[in-house]
């Protein structure tokens, strides 16, 4: 690649076959970085440039894409979900006209006309749905309306194909897909059936961990997920119910669950009528493993304790509400009605007493930096410099590694799930070398000026009596 100052330089006259002597050779590295993720501010700026939306609708747009699970926030960045990729694939493949930037911008202009009273909304909606001569050439109305557009495409849509996102091929050339299912995304590839005939293939599946974004899922990570047994590890039988208890790895991490017997097949006379709502059977009890437990070491006794949660601690004598101890996605906590309080350790779930719970509730609820810290994203080994355990936490500006004293943000290319202890120690050492963070000093408050004292009004001289 030529340097900017070399672009206009003319080469000396050369002839074919002439050898050239190298006077100087330097190696320059050039890397291409992907564009930064959208933040709320940069997304709104992009919408403004495309003429999509209005100032009054931007906040609802941002809220909607988060509420529907199309993006989630990591720090200030908006990270797309697997569902977003599936929805975009559906719209671009079958409803491209609806997601065309020019169409959306023109639609905004039409809505402005309605708002200003120059267009009747019923006429516009009727043409948009059933078709008509409204809009620019190629608009949905002129193409026959939304009803026709959906009717034509609905028969062609393959739900499985739409919900399948090809990632890459493994080292044997087998394509690996992410399928977006009703219980979340999962990996799938076709492998040889060990019990079938030669050449027979069966699907191999693995859950995609919650929080793993599309750009973080590599071939190596996919192979690690495929290596986790999907059928789980049998722990034993619950003596009270007789149900088998297994430990599995799921979308939200490792958990234990009970295996319920298959419901009996209904006889012909009892079969539900066509169109009748299907009656669902009982759901199995489940419980997430504590941070101190692993799939390989969890016991039947541990599993039964987890499945017994939430544990009733007692009743608040003042309010009459029941207090329970539970294990949540963000750690152990107490719950009384709608009021939740964090517990310091997981062991307290099984040991906290009613008096201790009431004492916790008698204290003011802590918020912000005073609140009990959320569970770390990942626990690492010991820092080679300080000898203290390292963890990765999710902060205001994204994930960071800490040993309890020094915090260091993860850099571009550092992955929460694959970062090594050596790399984490390197980040902490680099942060210490840069010294403590200098905080801006607050300017001293200006002394309020004293208001001048009000003068007493002059007294009028009394008139002498004549």
UniProtKB/TrEMBL annotation:
Residues 434-466 have a biased composition (Basic residues). Residues 268-283 have a biased composition (Basic and acidic residues). Pfam families: Topoisom_bac, Toprim_C_rpt. The lineage of its organism: Bacteria, Bacillati, Actinomycetota, Actinomycetes, Mycobacteriales. InterPro entries: Topo_IA, Topo_IA_cen, Topo_IA_cen_sub1, Topo_IA_cen_sub2, Topo_IA_core_domain, Toprim_C_rpt. Residues 260-288, 427-466 are annotated as: Disordered. This is DNA topoisomerase family protein. The keyword Cell inner membrane does not apply. One of its GO terms (biological process) is DNA topological change. The keyword Isomerase applies. Keywords: Isomerase. Residues 1-137 form the Topo IA-type catalytic domain.
């Amino acid at each position: 690649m030529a340097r900017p100052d070399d672009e206009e330089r003319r080469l000396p006259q050369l002839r074919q076959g002439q050898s050239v002597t190298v006077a100087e050779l330097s190696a320059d590295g050039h890397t291409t970085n992907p564009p930064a993720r959208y933040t709320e501010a940069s997304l709104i700026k992009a919408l403004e440039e495309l003429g999509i939306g209005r100032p009054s609708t931007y906040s609802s747009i941002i809220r909607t894409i988060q509420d529907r699970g199309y993006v989630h926030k990591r720090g200030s960045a908006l990270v797309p979900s697997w569902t977003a990729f599936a929805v975009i694939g559906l719209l671009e493949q079958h409803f491209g006209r609806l997601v065309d930037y020019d169409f959306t911008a023109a639609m905004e202009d039409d809505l402005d006309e309605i708002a200003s009273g120059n267009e009747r909304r019923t006429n516009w909606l009727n043409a948009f749905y059933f078709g008509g001569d409204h809009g620019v050439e190629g608009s949905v109305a002129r193409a026959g309306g939304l009803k026709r557009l959906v009717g034509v495409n609905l028969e062609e849509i393959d739900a499985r194909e739409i919900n399948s996102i090809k990632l890459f091929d493994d080292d044997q050339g087998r394509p690996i897909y992410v399928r977006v299912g009703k219980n979340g995304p999962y990996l799938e590839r076709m492998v040889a059936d060990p019990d079938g005939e030669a050449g027979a293939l069966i699907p191999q599946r693995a859950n995609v961990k919650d929080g793993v974004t599309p750009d973080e899922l590599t071939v190596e990570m996919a192979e690690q997920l495929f290596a986790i047994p999907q059928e789980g590890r049998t722990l034993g039988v619950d003596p009270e119910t007789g149900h088998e208890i297994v430990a599995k790895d799921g979308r939200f991490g490792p958990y234990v669950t009970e295996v319920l017997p298959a419901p009996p097949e209904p006889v012909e006379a009892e079969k539900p009528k066509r169109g009748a709502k299907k009656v669902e059977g009982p759901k199995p009890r489940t419980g997430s493993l504590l941070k101190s437990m692993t799939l390989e070491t969890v016991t039947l006794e541990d599993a039964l304790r987890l499945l017994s949660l939430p544990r009733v601690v007692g009743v608040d004598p003042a309010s009459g509400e029941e207090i329970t101890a539970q294990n949540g996605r963000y750690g152990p906590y107490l719950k009384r009605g709608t009021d939740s309080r964090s517990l310091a350790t997981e062991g307290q779930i099984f040991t906290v007493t009613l008096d201790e719970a009431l004492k916790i509730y008698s204290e003011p609820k802590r918020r912000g930096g005073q609140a009990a810290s959320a569970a770390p994203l990942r626990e690492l080994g010991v820092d080679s410099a300080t000898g203290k355990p390292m963890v990765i936490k999710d902060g205001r500006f994204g994930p960071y590694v800490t040993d309890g004293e020094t915090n260091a943000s993860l850099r571009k290319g550092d992955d929460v799930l694959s970062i090594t202890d050596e790399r984490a120690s390197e980040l902490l050492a680099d942060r210490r070398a840069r010294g403590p963070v200098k905080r801006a000093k607050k300017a001293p408050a200006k002394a309020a000026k004293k208001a001048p004292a009000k003068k007493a009004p002059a007294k009028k001289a009394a008139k002498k009596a004549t």
